[in-house]
Amino acid sequence: MSDDFTKSEYWYWSTDLSVGVCQIDDDHRLMFQLFHEAYLLSQNQPNSIALHFGLASELVQYIESLFKRKEAIMLASSIPFYENYFSIHKLLLQKIQQELSLIESGKKSVIDFVIFLRNWFIGYIKNSGQCILEYTARNEHNIHLALEKYASLIPKQRCHIYLVDDDEAYINLMQAMVDAAGFKCTSFSSGALFLETPITNDDLVVLDLNMPEKDGIEVMRELTEKQLSPAFILISGFDERVLHSARQFAESKQLNVADILSKPIETEDFIDTLINVYAKCKLAYLLKETKDTKDTKIIEKPSEEIGIDELIQAINQHELIIYIQPQVDFSNGALTGGEVLVRWQHSEQGLVFPDQFIPLAEQHYLMGELTEAVILESIKAYKQIRTAGIDIRLSINLSAQNINNLALPEKLETLLKTHAISPETFVLELTESAILTNTSESLDIFNRLRMKGFSLSIDDFGTGDSSLKKLYQSPFSELKIDQHFVSRIEKDPDAISIVKVCVLLAKEFKMRTVAEGVETQAIWDKLKALDCDIAQGYFIARPMPITDFINWAVNDKN
Ligand code: C2E
Ligand code: CA
Ligand code: CA
Q: How far apart are alpha carbons 182 and 526 in whole angstroms?
């Protein structure tokens, strides 16, 4: 179930990988940084094929340059077996090109690609290292001359990093850490000076909250007045509570606070945070780039934009298909269910994800039709799953519009009866906000669904302003803790508290807890320790087409 790639040591170059030639070591170190970055980026945006392809192509360009530089070094130092390397390089580039086309067509994930490259790279360094040194040591001057013709492997830094802190010693320290993380930055010793610099929303600002004339909160306030919203990492010598209220201020103004750190700052924490946040800034930037290019395409060819007529046609012509993501029991890893997630198999655009058409369907009151299509597909899938001997629940997402329809419970019941499926096996998920915005009529619908045997689940729990009373009145049997909190559980004490409260609350109301967005072993361990019941997330498996899901359940699960 797990994979080595969650082990962080594999994402950093370390001295035991040194080949003794500083130019080569520097290039190798940079490649690790790029692998890591691509890995983080692809995790953040698992569904964007355009982004994945962009990331993978960028990696390939770097590898090509790295090979060129290495070949130049080998020639310059007259290494006798250089031809072996040249042919290894050539073969690898061919293989990489094949893999790239798989990514472009959505058949391979960039994560697998990055892991493949990185593992290969580690082996490559280990096997090639020592024997080079013997020759390069005698030819340093030649190497230097040869490399002048080749550009250094400097990554394009798309987001600028600013350090703002009145404490000189801290500035120096942070600057050294930024260097160690492989980035460049500009430092300011006062908020006022920093505010004179033109920055953009793509930038990253490491901001000390406690500064004499203009403190960090004022700096943030002035930036919002200028309509600027870069990403912030907040730093403070104050206790956690000050940082906490600064974060709340930032949230009330919808500022982008990526992380908060207290002084004294641990080098490792800072570098980790910086690499993570930088990855997110770069991601936002790349997405904007892909979106911009998409937008220009739309101007050239208006037909590419998804229109409501096209969506209606897609529903009628069964172009909506479903993927299923497994849910497993924390206590023993057993498969207990699957969440049905809709996709649109678009004839020109390939697989389109729900965030690109559900809002459109909602806007045009099409959720009744869409949900019906999903339920019909789910019934078919359920039969296949049963035939394969797998006995699980299927969770289906309902929208607020579905629970305005008073006839829904009877309609669903009849549908399942015709197919001889018991309602107990269907879990209906509703987001916390949909439950709360609905009226007394929805309560009536919930009760009738429950009485007919369906399970009801509160989705994205923790994101709405829950009223305990309303929750108490509603007959829900499952609570899904929002991924936002789950993904932060390793570092953010607030997230831990929220998850703890969710689990306690659920137990009090005799509900099952499902944690969504379980991405790593560490997150799994933490949630298991907190007594959460069911896990769903990439650590277990991604959403898959039905046949893959069955194969996974039967063959690969462990
Ligand atoms: P959701 O109900 O919260 O579904 C979970 C989403 O999180 C899915 O995105 C899933 O692919 C993604 N996810 C699962 N595990 C992880 C993980 O470990 N890390 C991260 N970062 N993400 C993970 P997807 O499939 O793109 O669906 C997005 C949303 O679209 C869903 O959020 C749901 O609100 C909506 N949706 C999907 N299918 C339907 C449907 O049939 N009907 C309705 N009404 N809404 C749907
Ligand atoms: Ca859901
Ligand atoms: Ca959810």
A: 31
